[in-house]
Design a protein that fits this description.
The structure is a single chain. This protein is α+β, with helices and mostly antiparallel strands and about 300 residues long. It has two domains: about 70 residues, Uridine Diphospho-n-acetylenolpyruvylglucosamine Reductase, domain 3, CATH 3.30.465.10; about 210 residues, Vanillyl-alcohol Oxidase, Chain A, domain 3, CATH 3.40.462. It has a seven-stranded antiparallel beta sheet. It has a three-stranded antiparallel beta sheet with strand order 2-1-3, with helices on one face. Helix 8 runs antiparallel to helix 9. The longest helix is centred in the last third of the chain and has 15 residues. The chain is globular, with a radius of gyration of 20 Å. It starts with a helix and ends in a 15-residue tail after the last helix.
Length: about 300
């Protein structure tokens, strides 16, 4: 999921084929001709093969508009409400992220259109009192450097290593947040964990839940519960924060944030697609060579 997701879809939705090695040592191209394996590799985690190459359908984009806004801690509930009203149902050209922390809240996004249209679109956010708002237009590469946190250092800065310890978990939200839910999100951000909310909808949700192994096609947004800290502290913060907001989620979780605290991770990650995934596992990896702490067992 990236900042062109609501316009262009998830990366897995743009895959035309893989080059992969299966558990029996066979190597080859995996595409629509291998219906089950191709389906499973698009969202099924590291359970089915070692992927050595990915072929993608790409789009030519030269520039895009962006916005960034920040507010103090007292505005978190109001900003979250305004963002929840706007982001999941906005025109597909806009993908945005809202992040709550103990000290404040930010929102930013990318729009595949003009800056003037973007400014009109995010007016409800810009009107929340106490905020600092900016917007502009950038070349595509410059904008991706901005999102990568290396806008000022060129591509070399984008390759720097970050060895910080962290813990993370996730929650999917499929219904508009009530006042009680927004209060819970603010309280959760007060634990020291950050809540990073990625807007879904648009092209992400236009794909059927059973069209790929990625089942989360009805979500309004995902929440990454995140803490950069010594691992014991990080785990404690994340567990507390997730427990506070989980009642307002739909019971699903993002499979790229492994979480040993989940009581039923496979159901949370794969939902109704799990039985088919287990059947495919039995076909392509019956001996469980691709095994890890929360892998998919063969049917």
């Amino acid at each position: 999921m990236g900042l062109a997701g609501r316009s262009l879809g998830l990366t897995l939705d743009r895959v035309t084929s893989f080059q992969a090695v299966t558990a029996d040592g066979s190597a080859g191209r995996v595409d629509d001709a291998d219906e089950d394996l191709f389906w499973a590799l698009r969202g099924g985690g590291g359970n089915f093969a070692i992927v050595t190459a990915v072929r993608l359908q790409v789009s030519r984009i030269r520039q895009a508009a962006w916005f960034f806004a920040s507010w103090p801690a007292g505005a978190r509930a109001e900003v979250l409400g305004a963002w929840d009203d706007l982001a999941p149902g906005a025109p597909s050209a806009l993908t945005s992220i809202c992040t709550l922390t103990s000290s404040g809240v930010t929102a930013f996004g990318q729009y595949l259109g003009s800056e003037s249209a973007l400014r009109r679109l995010v007016t409800p956010l810009a009107r929340v009192p106490g905020g600092r708002f900016s917007a502009g237009t950038s070349s595509w590469l410059a904008l991706q450097r901005r999102w990568a946190g290396c806008a000022d250092g060129g591509l070399a800065a984008c390759r720097r290593e970050d060895r910080s310890t962290f813990d993370s978990a996730s929650v999917y939200v499929s219904k508009p947040l009530s006042g009680k839910a927004r209060a819970a999100f603010v309280k959760a951000a007060g634990t020291g964990a950050s809540l990073v909310c990625d807007s879904y909808g648009g092209a992400v949700n236009r794909v059927a839940a059973d069209a790929t192994a990625f089942v989360h096609r009805d979500a309004r947004f995902s929440v990454q519960v995140l803490s950069y800290a010594p691992i014991g502290t990080a785990k404690s913060r994340v567990a507390r924060a997730r427990a506070m907001i989980a009642p307002y989620g739909d019971g699903e979780a993002y499979q790229n944030y492994p979480d040993l605290a989940l009581s039923d991770p496979l159901q949370a990650w794969y939902g109704a697609n799990l039985p088919r995934l287990r059947s495919i596992k039995a076909t392509y990896d019956p001996d469980g060579r691709f095994a890890f702490a929360q892998d998919i067992p063969a049917a």
